[in-house]
Amino acid sequence: MSRFLTSLYILLALTLPQANAQQTKTTSIPIHNAQALVLIGTPGYPIDGIYHLANDIDMRQLTTQQLQQGCLPIGGRSQAIFNGQLDGRGKTIRHLRIHKPQQDGVGLFYGVGQEACVENVCLENVKVQGRNNVGIIAGYNYGCIKKIELKAKSLLIIKGNKYVGSVVGTNKGRISEIRTAGNVRGHTMVGGLAGENHGNISEIRIQSTVTGYKSTGGLVGKNKGKINKIEPQSTVTGYAMVGGLVGENSGRISKVRAQSTVTGYELIGGLVGKNKGKITQCTIAGKVTGVLKVNSLAGENHGTTTFYLSWRVKKFQLAPNSNKVLSLKPPQKAI
Fold it and tell me: Do 220 and 208 form a contact (C-beta atoms < 8 A)?
């Protein structure tokens, strides 16, 4: 009997630590406030952990000292990619402020990794500024971002240089089921949702005001991936390769219902500024104004456009020396 009990104790000693470790890895950690949110990536809050928002989060709770020490973006101090899960459970993050004009990879997260998912989060009253790869959720996305709402009636301002969007700077993952609005400003590859897309973007409703210089679009600045089921309402201003949906396209675009006001100088289109990809099943309405290579669908088209394309776009050709054109001259430096 004693030999049996000894064997049982040894078995329990070997198995219980494994069970506890497994439970720790799979149990969702509640985030109750801003202080806990920015601890992700520090001891006790692993960068690949599973988290959920237990309350609405007011980022004004962060102290000046925390902000000066670089608590945002999450992972930014060590350029660590978030590889866990964050489920907002419908809660709202308010008053996010990030001012890092000389830093790349700026957003709530520095980057979202291949195994990561950020979902079910609302954000309102946000100002984010960085240099390259700038977005409210992350500078870079390689994973999954879905069911995000950036509330239209609140203040949403995103500024940067290259690869700038309201949700992410560069997307190489999956972004879906997004409702977003905001004012996005940059220089090159600037979009209402993402600056550049190599991945999949689908089921998006967006209201955006986008200002850039080159490769500027109401949804994406430069697209090399897939864009599907989009309803954009955008006002887009740039200089070259400017489109109501995409500035420069070499990927696939399908099932879009766009309403856009687009103004630029060269390669200006109601849907795409310059197209080398495939466009199908799109409806476009709005106004397009420019000087060179200005068209309702695409300023210049070297790709394919098939299956149910219709547009109700007013096209205006400007004289090269008009006041409106002079205001679109290339800036001396990035915005």
Answer: no
Q: Are strands 304-317 and 278-290 parallel, antiparallel or unpaired?
A: parallel
Per-residue model confidence (pLDDT) at position 5: 38
Element (H, E) at 230: strand 226-237
Amino acid at 145: I
* pLDDT the model gives residue 22: 34
Average pLDDT estimate for 120-144: 97
Please check whether residue 300 is in contact with residue 276, taking contact to mean a CB–CB distance below 8 angstroms.
no
> In sequence order, what are the residues at sequence separation of 6 or more whose Cβ sits closer than 8 angstroms to the Cβ of residue 286?
244, 258, 259, 260, 261, 262, 270, 312, 313, 314
Asked whether 69 and 39 are in contact (CB, 8 A), the reply is no
For residues 89 and 53, is the Cβ–Cβ distance under 8 A? yes
Contacts of 151 (CB under 8 A, 6+ apart): 92, 122, 123, 124, 181
- Say how far apart CA 148 and CA 118 lie, in whole Å: 8
Q: Please, what is the Cα angle at 256 between 254 and 258, to 5 degrees?
A: 150
Question: Is the whole model's pTM more than 0.85, yes or no?
Answer: yes
